[in-house]
Amino acid sequence: MAIVDVYNMNGEKLEEMELPDSIFGIEEHEHAVHQAVVQYLANQRQGTKSAKTRAEVRGGGRKPWKQKGTGRARQGSIRAPQWTGGGVVFAPKPRDFHVRLNKKQKRLAMKSVLSNKVREKKFIVLDELAISEPKTKLMMKICDNLKLNTALIVIKGSDRNIILSARNIPNIKTAAVNTINVYDILKWDVFVVTKEAVNQMQEVYV
């Protein structure tokens, strides 16, 4: 069992918490993590870029000048790629970049990065995270107490006050348990999670 410290919002250690090795203590599986990151980045792509080929650009039906005798290079259309306003060679077209990953691989990748955060001592558990009103100043104070520079803060559900309070802090991101992904866990240096969220994660990734 991995053991982590539990802190309050003032940065004071309250107790220790045991985490199951089946989720937070496995060996890192680099291939699964790589596949999960590739999937996430690929699925962020809209695939809507488009340009016209010479066949699609309007005009250019008439030959600009006769083939021989002008002293200029031969040209067949003013919509050829070398002309201003002409078509694009191998023009990009809308396409689907979607990548699929099976559930076992996703779960393995998630367990790998969570276990890695625990090993690196970058896994902070909070007894609770509650803010009475949406104020950036309150969230900044909590981050200062916990000595956070860049962090992903994970809560059990969607708390409007927490989300709004952290929204304007450039190096802090909030997420619910059901929305976290491997890419964000790797991107943000410290993984901060509430006790409620840890219990929910154990139910999801068991």
What does this structure look like?
This protein has helices at 21-24, 30-43, 103-119, 136-145, 160-166, 182-187, 195-204; strands spanning 2-7, 13-19, 123-126, 151-155, 172-176, 190-194. With 206 residues, it is α/β, with parallel strands linked by helices. The chain folds into two domains: 2-45 and 98-204, Ribosomal protein L4/L1 (Ribosomal Protein L4, Chain: A); 47-96, no CATH class. A six-stranded mixed β-sheet has the order 2-1-3-6-4-5. Helix 2 crosses helix 3 (103-119) and helix 4 (136-145) packs across helix 5. It is elongated, with a radius of gyration of 27 Å.
How many helices in DSSP terms? 7
Tally of extended strands?
6
Largest sheet: 6 strands, mixed
Strand line-up in the sheet with most strands: 2-1-3-6-4-5
Note the topology.
Layout: E1 2-7, E2 13-19, H1 21-24, H2 30-43, H3 103-119, E3 123-126, H4 136-145, E4 151-155, H5 160-166, E5 172-176, H6 182-187, E6 190-194, H7 195-204
Parallel strand pairs: 1-3, 3-6, 4-5, 4-6
Antiparallel strand pairs: 1-2
Summarize the structure.
With 206 residues, the chain is an alpha/beta fold. It is built from 7 helices and 6 strands. The chain folds into 2 domains: 2-45 and 98-204, Ribosomal Protein L4, Chain: A; 47-96, no CATH class.
